[in-house]
Amino acid sequence: MTTNVFEFLEEENPQAVILRDFYEAIVGVAPGEDGLPVLVYSTDEIFRLLQSRDKMSYADAMVYLEALVSGLHVVRHKPVFLKNFSQGAIDRLEGALTSNQRNESSS
Fold first, then answer.
1. pLDDT category, 3, cuts 50, 70, 90?
2. For the segment 86-96, what is each residue's pLDDT rounded down to a tens digit?
3. How is 19-45 classified by DSSP, letter by letter?
């Protein structure tokens, strides 16, 4: 049995991309595009690290994060990036989806 996420990936998908500067932002493992496990990173935590640890401005951190995510677009075994939403944002999204479903069923 594996004792940590890195040992697990070494056994199950040794080609999985690991962003070594952002260990603290790892929130889990999920199936990648080919079904093999890849790391899941919190974009909120990466953003926080860029600002606090690397002393980036809000704008610079946004540019860096955008470049990081888009730069991995064509890479196999790339990580998944998770955007955390507040409960208020989730409630608004659920309301919009429910309203949209009502509109579709009435047409």
1. low
2. 788 778 888 88
3. -GGGGGGEEEEEE-TTSSEEEEEEHHH
> Which residues have CB under 8 Å from 32's CB, separation 6+?
13, 16, 38, 77, 78, 80
Q: pLDDT tens for residues 37-79? A: 999 999 999 999 999 999 999 999 999 999 999 999 889 999 9
Distance separating alpha carbons of residues 46 and 51, to the nearest angstrom? 9
Nearest to 5 by CA among 51, 18, 105, 91: 18
CA dist 107 → 90, 95, 97, 98, 104 (Å): 26, 19, 16, 15, 5
For the chain, domain boundaries: 5-106
CA-wise closest residue to 7 among 37, 31, 32, 35:
37
